[in-house]
Fold each of these.
Amino acid sequence: MPIIGMGNVMWIAVTREVSPALGDCELSYVPRTPIDAARAGRQHHDYQRALEVLGCHLVTLPAEPAWPDSVFVEDVAIVLDEVAIMTQPGALSRRAEVASVATLLRSYRPVLAIETPGTLDGGDVLRLGSTLYVGQSARSNAQGIGQLRELLASHGYTVHAVPTRGCLHLKSAVTQLNDDTLLLQPAWVDREQFAGFRIIEVDPVEPHAANVLRIGDALLMPASFPRTRQRLLDAGFEVTAVDVTELQKAEGAVTCCSLVFRAKE
Ligand code: GLY
């Protein structure tokens, strides 16, 4: 598979194939409806192709039949330029997902870990420059956030805890569009937490639209949020849309399905 660079930047995207047990996933704020795991797998493959088109070199782990949520690899690690932190997922059913991703990431970064009683989901961690904003959610507790702060202090990162409400993760409520602009759902997180950033709000009829994956100057978002996408296009952003409706039934979105990080030179 060719490695495609964006300028002199090259991105690795770690993904894991959809588990056939996806229908048994954890759900917190989304009602349970039947999930077609095969269709989710096809949508996931389209998502993977989109990552490649946007300049990522894909590294894919095999499906794990015993771990329904394991396609959502973002939750088990935080990968920075200097180091990777393995999380301690807040849902007990997801703890077993961590080890195989840790083994893979050791090829790319030194690997550290959050330990119990700390809990932390990667979906709660939004890096904006050298500050990591971390959602205080049902999945990420004060001990986990405190451990992250200690592990990253020597690498020059600040960790800032952010209250969330009514959503699974901080990145359900806010993601980054470019260095100074965020896409935000005001019902789920206070915009005042992000002073200094320009804020674009999701369209009110698309409450789940704040989760957008940024890869360099490119943005990837679900096709099911055309009104919010239009807001981004009107603001001058380039946005690729992918159909991830079956993964959305599992309370997933576009950032959850990959760990995207800079390849070392
Ligand atoms: N189904 C995604 C999660 O709850 O972790």
Note: The radius of gyration is 17 Å.
Amino acid sequence: MFNKRTKIKQLLQSEQTGHEVTVMGWVRTFRNNQFIALNDGSTNNNVQVVVELGLLDDATLKRITTGASLKVNGIVVASVGKGQSIEVKAKSLEILGDSDAEKYPLQPKKHSLEFLRHIAHLRFRTNTFGSVFRIRHSLAFAVHQFFNDKGFVYLHTPIITASDAEGAGEMFQVTTLPIDGSAPKYPDGSINYNEDFFGKPTNLTVSGQLEGELGAMAFSEIYTFGPTFRAENSNTTRHLAEFWMIEPEMAFYDIEDNMNLAEEFIKYLIQYAMDHNRDDIEFLSQRLAEEEKQLPQDKRSELGLIEKLEFVLNNAFERITYTDAINILLESNHYKKKKFTYDIKWGIDLQSEHERYLVEKHFKKPVIVTGYPAAIKAFYMRMNDDGKTVAAMDILAPGIGEIVGGSQREERLDKLEARMKDMHIPAEEMSWYLDTRRFGTVPHAGFGLGFERMVQFVTGMTNIRDVIAFARTPKNCEF
Ligand code: 4AD
Ligand code: MG
């Protein structure tokens, strides 16, 4: 059998000595023709492999270069060197794959995140991305743990859909018709989608919510966790064209139950990472502190990453209405000194500068904003008694802005139909959705957590492109 190896994380944790092990991994550094720092991705900590003089011929020694892959068999011994308690004294060493030192882009030195984005196929091998992607994995696992423990059913909603769940029209079209102008057309020149693969226009999903609601009307509580796609032309540090979203949907929940669940969920995810990825969070915390040293004092975070996470865990999220938020903004010195770029008045969609002011300057903690004007929110949100606002809730997080968007849903058929008509949403095509309101409708609510924004929050990474393996953004689809 080839793969009888000990993972480096496990080896370093056990601290036992005297036994024989096989380790495999990639060379990070090789010093004095004697000391190899070997890493297998199970942890950022390398195991030191000691090659005694005379064990290997010169030709083999030359092939031990940064990035080369090795299989090492040896004895675990106590280390006299600094920084590790054990090391592996090699008995035999096999080079599994060479790595040309002249050409290997990852040299053992600090590379910028920008540079690493261009070599995203290799960046997993750095400490920063090792930590980020182990944490991303843990958080994904924790999502399932959280909902499974509560008895929610994991529903796989479709990736290809024929509806625009958010009504925002930012969709990628899916078609097998030719795009060179030769697609079948009606006499008036419009495309005849009867001839298309699905017999109608289709797109990549922007949200699994509408299908999620169908599930909640039978299982009471469901969640989805899958990729979603938005063709919004936003080149920001918080937007991707392909991102992962977690969308729980619960029957017999009102807006307050919804807020409570979302807050509990976010705290659970943070706690899970703190308990299971302590080393990686500590590493990233130090990395962030180093990075922030380059910034002017007023741009630095008041809290380190770990302190920030602990603070969020130990404090209730602030809960305010949209109307409160507008008033706070209007009364701020920031506004009076004309420091906001976008105008503020009741009815506007909060811009990210407004959201950041509220969470970073005013409250200094996550804030849940409810009761947005109906006009700026999706058709499915429940109308409040004032007839102007809807039972929407957005959660805003420091350094991130909107991390969750959700609402209580409009369960009253007549009100929903009227709203859809106002917004020119074709009711005939949405008949399946309206059926849930026709047959045993119940108060229900749900929300969507942007998974990458959550990973950003826990890792402290400032650019969303650095928390997804291969980012899809406008004019960029590498790998
Ligand atoms: O606020 P959004 O658009 O809400 C929905 O899609 C609802 N259907 C959710 C629901 O109620 N079931 O998106 C939800 C979250 C946002 O708060 C944000 O965290 C994330 O998804 N998100 C994005 N993340 C990365 N890139 C983008 N382009 C994103 N757009 C939204
Ligand atoms: Mg939103």
Note: Residues 209 and 247 are 7 Å apart (CA to CA).
